[in-house]
Specification:
The chain is an alpha/beta fold. The chain is about 30% helix and about 25% strand. It starts with 16 loop residues before the first helix and ends in a 6-residue tail after the last helix. About 0% of the residues have low confidence. This is Purine nucleoside phosphorylase.
Length: about 300
């Protein structure tokens, strides 16, 4: 690795391997938990972490180098614990590109997970439904994604490649584990919830504004089923360093695709659906964590 000849990109000076090592060592010093599974909780899904026992939690601002969310009232806790005998770590709250963070900082926790020994990453997010069959409250198992900011050079792996994490040109054709997707669909059907669990393509936009109608139509033409402002950078960095990925997106609103028929999003309904589904999501994620060990990679 030639550290002297670094291209002056946004990402290149964000974090060195020593920064990752320091944060990892700090955490290893503070906790005896050695997680194999990490979960990133999207907006309003922080209660996924309530399922853990032997809970030990750290505020982001107390962890060296850890990115701290600028959104008021946004949770920011790293929660270690166990579900059955599976050791896991939950991120309650994340930072976004639209907050002004470089993608290197946004994805910093993922590399910490790698150095902590995590093998499986579960990402969750709230998103807008593009697919016309989707209803508010549906849960989409992420089958694939479109990295729209990445097309424009906003990519977490831009800059010098650190071979200690992964190769220069990582393969992304199998980013979302087929085994875990199948397992999630099996669990959903065992729980009798197949009618609101879908499988589809997630598209990331940078935000912070919501899509115009023309943009939403473009996304539909491109094959996107849901659109959100997160998740893809973390998934890309996880795949790069060999972490198995599973993703879920909660459809909190329908994206308007029609000028004459403005979708009337009832915010109270959205919140209510979110709350109702959060319980199902918690059960689904907990069961997935318990059973994912038995799946071959
Ligand atoms: C971790 O603990 C070791 C041994 O007590 C100490 O030398 C080291 O400085 C600690 N590292 C961090 C990052 O806290
Ligand atoms: C936590 C998180 O990433 N939430 C985002 C998920 O996507 C929705 C819809 O685009 C955003 O509004 C959230 O900020």
């Amino acid at each position: 690795l030639n550290t002297k000849k670094q291209a002056p990109t946004v990402n290149s000076n964000c974090c060195s391997f020593e920064d990752y090592k320091l944060t990892t060592e700090w955490l290893l010093n503070q906790t005896s938990h050695r997680p194999k599974v990490a979960v990133i909780c999207g907006s309003g899904l922080g209660l996924l972490a309530n399922a853990v026992n032997n809970r030990q939690s750290f505020r982001y601002e107390d962890i060296p180098n850890f990115p701290v969310s600028t959104i008021p009232g946004h949770e920011g806790c790293l929660v270690f614990g166990t579900i059955k005998d599976q050791c896991c770590v939950f991120m309650q709250g994340r930072v976004h590109l639209y907050e002004g963070y470089s993608l290197c900082k946004v994805t910093f926790p993922v590399r910490i997970f790698k150095l902590l020994g995590v093998e499986t990453l579960v990402v969750t997010n709230a998103s807008g439904g593009i697919c016309q069959d989707y209803k508010v409250g549906d849960i989409m198992v992420i089958k694939d994604h479109i990295n729209l900011p990445g097309f424009a050079g906003q990519h977490p792996l831009c800059g010098p490649n650190d071979e200690r994490f992964g190769v220069r040109f990582p393969c992304m054709s199998d980013a979302y584990s087929k085994d875990l997707r199948r397992l999630a669909l099996d669990i959903s059907s065992e729980m009798g919830c197949s009618d609101f669990v879908r499988e589809g393509v997630y598209c990331m936009v940078s935000g912070p504004n919501f899509e115009t109608i023309a943009e939403a139509r473009m996304l539909q033409v491109l094959g996107c089923d849901a659109v959100g402002m997160s998740t893809v950078p973390e998934v890309t960095v996880a795949k790069h360093c060999g972490i198995r990925v599973f993703g879920l997106s909660l459809i909190t609103n329908k994206v308007s695709l029609d000028y004459s028929r403005e979708e009337m999003v009832n915010h109270e309904d959205v919140l209510l659906t979110g709350k109702m589904r959060a319980e199902f999501l918690q059960k689904l994620v907990a069961t997935l964590i318990i059973r994912c060990n038995h799946q071959e990679q």
